[in-house]
Input
Amino acid sequence: MRALTWHGRRDVRVDTVPDPTIQDSDDIVVKVTTTGLCGSDLHLYEVLGPFLDPGDILGHEPMGIVEEVGPDVTALKPGDRVVIPFNVSCGTCFMCAQGLHSQCETTQVHEHGTGASLFGYTKLYGQVPGGQAQYLRVPFGNTLPIRVPEGPSDERFVYLSDVLPTAWQAVEYAAIPPGGSVAVLGLGPIGDMSARIAAHRGAGTVIGIDLVPERLERARRRGLHTLDLTECGDGLTDAVRELTGGRGPDAVIDAVGMEAHGSRVAAAAQGMTSFLPDALASAMMKRAGIDRLSALYTAIDLVRRGGTISISGVYGGAADPMPLLTMFDKQLQVRMGQANVRRWVDDIMPLLTDGDPLGVEDFATHRVTLEQAPDAYEMFQKKRDGAVKVLFTP
Output
């Protein structure tokens, strides 16, 4: 089959690789019909190379048709249409029973002390072959895949793999009071969808903050307040407070993470790892890694006293300095973590089967073949051509 594989920093290629096969009795094999390019994939493209091997298959946002099932799979049959969550979660352990599928005890990566394995996401998370491919082996065939109805286009359901549950959890963790206010930092796929969900769930004021004109325009078309970082500059906090009664929003969602524009020191430290041997680079990142924290510091500054910060953007640093004095003084609540995909499916599914209130069918800005994936990664990373969300057709 053809699959998108990692070969080095900013070097991804579409290679011919062996087809996946049934390995355990509850496995299924899915023929992928649509698969997404996620902002988190850019961390692999740019920063997390020390935890990848050449030839690793990337991608964690697939959906498709069941091609083959193991002998113990009873919930699905060949021909069923399914979306695959990015968490590799068993659905039956203690953590999954708590709705913490990203902490699944069956697939935790004890070697690195991390949570549940993830499709297509480094040795830190199990080095499981990903879904930017023509076929995908999926374990836990009775409990992990999300069966979806025939009829509507793939665009209606593919975001159940990551974007929708991640954004839903970001809003849930933000604890926005009815009619309250929220500022969303970063209007990439997760930030954009978080803003839509917050508005749909009753937030009175939703403020989207970014510096890419096309992203800001998308949010404006949805009727949201927008602030352009390039225009606000150091006046961002004042601009947000002016929209929120002078005290700041009830909540801030950080949908940016470690790829934020900002600290040159952090950028240099991240870049330096690409020149080190993998063993040394991975040890450095795990023990002394630092992130570009400008988005998180901005969130702490913007949110009102007693407010909540919800972090959905991925951070990877082990030695990030945090302004605890300010956080303590402002009495902030902070919630974060990988999305527990399966936890939120039942809440989201009615919004996909009864109309399209979140605008998922026109959410993608680009749909290209899998063979065009290397160019799409570069386009997305450089924010060219209005790229906000890219879908691949294998």
